[in-house]
Amino acid sequence: MWHLMMSQLAPRDPKGAYIRPESAFRDAIAPDSPHPPQAGRYRLYAGLGCPWAHRTLVTRSLKGLEDAIAVVIVSPSPDEGIWLFEEEEEGCRTLPELYQLAQPGYTGRCTVPVLWDSETKRIVNNESAEIIVILNAAFNEFAKNAELDLYPEDLRGAIDSWNDKIYPSVNNGVYRCGFAQTQAAYEEACNELFAMLDEIDATLAANRYLCGDRVTLADVRLFTTLFRFDIVYHGLFKCNRRRIQDYQHLGAYLRDLYQLPGVAGTCDRDSIKRDYYGNLFPLNPGGIIPLGGDEGDLLDSHNRDKIGANASN
Hints:
Elements: H1 2-9, E1 42-47, H2 51-63, E2 70-76, E3 83-89, E4 92-94, H3 95-102, E5 114-117, E6 122-125, H4 128-137, H5 156-171, H6 173-178, H7 183-203, H8 217-233, H9 248-258, H10 269-279
Parallel strand pairs: 1-2
Antiparallel strand pairs: 1-5, 2-3, 3-4, 5-6
Helix pairs in contact: 2-4, 2-8, 5-7, 5-8
């Protein structure tokens, strides 16, 4: 029965390893496209518990796009297994209804985040890795922090390299641990996860951020996983060799990113615990939300501005 429930929650390969389906909507914002950059035209649909949606909220905040792009928060329904709107959006009560409005007959997953074009009534993109690239550059004329480039040309090779390593082993790696359906699949994912965390921690001994002295999209992508790690992944997903706050450099790095202007306002610990422990029935059948399990005091001093020769920048 557990395997049946898990197969409905998380698709697996023959060895019992979790396979994440790809996102379906992959358009961009561009002047000569069906989706030109305009303030007030686009909305972000996001769930506060979701790390993938959280990336887009962090990027939007860092760039200062709050006045240009509205955010609508959706909440998971433990009974229906779908995302729900607090109030109707485009005449829709649920996220699957919105997907059907955008593409009648759509049969894929209805996930967040969603970058929505309110003029064409279409989904521009539902792949978080691409949405944050869009938010970084496509709306600069409306951004309060247009000078902040989170994906600069001179660092793109390093950023992409880190993303290629961190996504399978950490971002998706925690899910590969939590959703593994065999002991072998779990151990493989867990070993890869902590090997990469060790590598990142060693890198951060000499670099304030992953790519040097400048925060980039690589840091944004890692941050939302690290923020949830001690709260839910350590316990619920059996990623329990170490907590992030137990790492000398990763713990301080997490505090550094959390204290960047606007980032803390995108973080909701209560929603994260409620969404994970309350909605993943096969992993937590009783739905009991633990009182403990947090990432420490993220407002403590991090002293990471002293790392690296160019840290003053």
